[in-house]
Structure formats: structure tokens, C-alpha cells
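sry for the spam today, last one i promise. C-alpha cells for design, 206 residues
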């Protein structure tokens, strides 16, 4: 059951959800205001064609920073690695998660980690739900259009589920302090002209 709304809950907030991976990483951006949720984007970062693990980690970091500077999320919700995989895979997955978190912390964005069962439980009511069941429930709840590339986008809908899980928790489990990137820019207007990742300057949300 959702906690009662507060004055802070009524302010618009952008949540970034991430489903870590070393081949495909899902991400999602939602804007919430009170109980209203607007899906801004959900997609994947593909790394299958990259030659080694180091290049994959760099790709994750660079793309995360690009997304952060485009959407200016207030909080990151990220799924914890699943402990059922082998040790080597677990190590690589942990690195991928750490790099994604580091990208957010570099922009003053607080993060919360959620166990896979917690995410599934919050979205479907069952901690043992399949990826397909999670995607189906999200499409019903958020009125999303059908997705043709289902296998690939199941990672994207998993990331969307992580963001929704955080929304349902209303950030009460927030573990990392700090201001949002948008708030940081508002408090430091001189940073607006600073180039980001060799690209265009960052603009704060209007």
C-alpha cells in the first residue's frame, strides 16, 4: 500500500531506473507527480559487439552520463545483481552496476538499490514473476503500446519496473544523500556553460 502523499510528493520528479547487464543494460526514465506517472523513455544500451569488458564498462559510463544530462533525473533506482549466477558473471555484473552508479554520483544524483524479487513483487505482486509477466503488467498499468522486439526490450521493461518500484516506495529507502543534478545546476548557474562529455552544454529543466 502506498504511503500518504506529502507536499514534496506533489512536486514533479524524474526517476531513472536501471537493470544492469554486461551484454544489454536496460534503462528507463519516468516523471512522477503525486500518483501520476509519465513514461519519458525506456530502452537498452547494447554492448554485445564490444571487444572486451573494459570497453563495455566505458560504454555504460558514457551512455549513462549522456542520459543524465539529457533527462536530468532526480534519483536513480537500480536493480541489485542476482546471486544465482556464477562468480565470474557476478563480478562482471557488479562492475557494470558500480559504473552506472558512479555515473549518477558524478552528477550528484542519489541512488537506491532494489533486490530483483522486490522489484517483481512491487509491480506484479509476485517476487517470482517472469520478465514477460513484468512487461505485461507494466503495459496494463502504464498503458504502453505493444513492443515488437520483445526479447530485447524485456531488459528495458525490467528497468521500467525498477523505476516504478522506487516510485511505489516513494524514495523512503533512499541510501545515498545529495542533490539532484537539476538542483545542482540551479544552485550553480556557472556550470550551465560547461561542456559535457565533449558535447553540447547542459541545460537545467525549465
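last one done:
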Amino acid at each position: 500500500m502506498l504511503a500518504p502523499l506529502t507536499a514534496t510528493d506533489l512536486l514533479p520528479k524524474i526517476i531513472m531506473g536501471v537493470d544492469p547487464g554486461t551484454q544489454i543494460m536496460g534503462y528507463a526514465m519516468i516523471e512522477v507527480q503525486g500518483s501520476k506517472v509519465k513514461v519519458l523513455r525506456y530502452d537498452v544500451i547494447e554492448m554485445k559487439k564490444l571487444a572486451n569488458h573494459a570497453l563495455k564498462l566505458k560504454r555504460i559510463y558514457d551512455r549513462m552520463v549522456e542520459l543524465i544530462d539529457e533527462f536530468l533525473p532526480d534519483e536513480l533506482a537500480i536493480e541489485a545483481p542476482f546471486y544465482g549466477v556464477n562468480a565470474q558473471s557476478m563480478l562482471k555484473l557488479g562492475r557494470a552496476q558500480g559504473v552506472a552508479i558512479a555515473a549518477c554520483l558524478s552528477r550528484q544524483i542519489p541512488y537506491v538499490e532494489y533486490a530483483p524479487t522486490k522489484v517483481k513483487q512491487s509491480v506484479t505482486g509476485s517476487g517470482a514473476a517472469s520478465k514477460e509477466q513484468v512487461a505485461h503488467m507494466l503495459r496494463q498499468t502504464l498503458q504502453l503500446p505493444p513492443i515488437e522486439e520483445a526479447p530485447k526490450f524485456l531488459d528495458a521493461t525490467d528497468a521500467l519496473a525498477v523505476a516504478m518500484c522506487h516510485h511505489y516506495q516513494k524514495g523512503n529507502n533512499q541510501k545515498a544523500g545529495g542533490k539532484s543534478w537539476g538542483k545542482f545546476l540551479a544552485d550553480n548557474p556557472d556550470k550551465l556553460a560547461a561542456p559535457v562529455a565533449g558535447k553540447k552544454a547542459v541545460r537545467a529543466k525549465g
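Residues 171-181, 191-206 have pLDDT under 50 and may be disordered. ok im logging off now
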